[in-house]
Amino acid sequence: xxxxxxxxxxxxxxxxxxxxxxxxxxxxxxxxxxxxxxxxxxxxxxxxxxxxxxxxxxxxxxxxxxxxxxxxxxxxxxxxxxxxxxxxxxxxxxxxxxxxxxxxxxxxxxxxxxxxxxxxxxxxxxxxxxxxxxxxxxxxxxxxxxxxxxxxxxxxxxxxxxxxxxxxxxxxxxxxxxxxxxxxxxxxxxxxxxxxxxxxxxxxxxxxxxxxxxxxxxxxxxxxxxxxxxxxxxxxxxxxxxxxxxxxxxxxxxxxxxxxxxxxxxxxxxxxxxxxxxxxxxxxxxxxxxxxxxxxxxxxxxxxxxxxxxxxxxxxxxxxxxxxxxxxxxxxxxxxxxxxxxxxxxxxxxxxxxxxxxxxxxxxxxxxxxxxxxxxxxxxxxxxxxxxxxxxxxxxxxxxxxxxxxxxxxxxxxxxxxxxxxxxxxxxxxxxxxxxxxxxxxxxxxxxxxxxxxxxxxxxxxxxxxxxxxxxxxxxxxxxxxxxxxxxxxxxxxxxxxxxxxxxxxxx
Length: 508
Description:
508 residues; seven-stranded mixed beta sheet; 28 strands; CATH 2.40.50.100; 12 helices; lipoyl; single chain; Chloramphenicol Acetyltransferase; alpha+beta; acyltransferase
């Protein structure tokens, strides 16, 4: 009996992924839950385990293919049922005939294939042609990348359906194309198909990553292009030296200075005095357009307001300094400030539950639990992993969760499930030196606390001026369900708990 391997659920707002790496080949024996392949989305990397023990049969979605949720990836012949037909992969020509993204018309000497826009996802109907990797007249190998499309969610690379010559480009860079639309024409045939093997070395496409003849992960290729990073500067950890997105992030995070992009090193013509000649206009990516739109939608939907206060961090810092060594020795994790702030917020949310609620139509949904979102900066941008049931966790459990989530965020290993379901968020702009700012709500949440830089300031204490370590706090809230009294009360309770941490022990 044959068992189907399908794309797992990728997350609430993610409808497709790219097949990054196959760890097994057709005909190889696999065990239950053994990793078969790795998928990449614009946010996370997803590993697909084997649903049964047996022999890997046909691989339907090859590396570089874009697949939707629940799409068929491969088949597995269960133990004792493997047959030659089940384990034999289809020829590439057969795949090309089956796929709806390619149509063809025969001529006397060759066949012309239409290169079409692949399926973009259930809710995505159009894309923008971002980059053509080939020019008209270039010879291409089967599955070699022709162009890259951008949607509001992901980047999609379009491979050549067969070996041949790119005879026409129908959709140019910057054009918007619909799903199933025509991108280009590819001429194939016996003489054309043999061309890549007999062409001189100079005509061969450059090999990726240090001369290794492997395709890098699509997300890695895109990120290197965005950051102007030479693949030779990145050490690939994937199969056969394949560069993964994580490898690019690691290269970008290294303190050693990277050489400037080739374009920046090239000699430039004298710059005219006119300002326009000194400007550079770059079209926003679909993803950046979506981020901009959603942030604006958050402002337009919620009646967002911010209230401020300041907290004297003297007692928290003293308590931390007194117990940090003993804490780390016993629990194996450093005692930071996030556990204090998380505890203080959980304490305040019990008194002001509307800050931990959300609006659903005409209903207000109150959460009798706290799933705390902790905003974390990563090389690819800001992410918000969620610590579930933070209100029932100890200081040590919170610190361990924060450290583990932060590490996974920096390594690009967070799953979509780990970034969903938050009921309240804490954002620490102080690590970047921010003295005061107004955080933006993370819908459908109704509250977000902004932490800032701890700075010594003169304060009036019992009629005397003393230098104290002070931090400004900002609470942005949805005024539709949180009144000013509730917002101010929440922030005052956080301030009181931090200025006298014993209140947390006494539940005061």
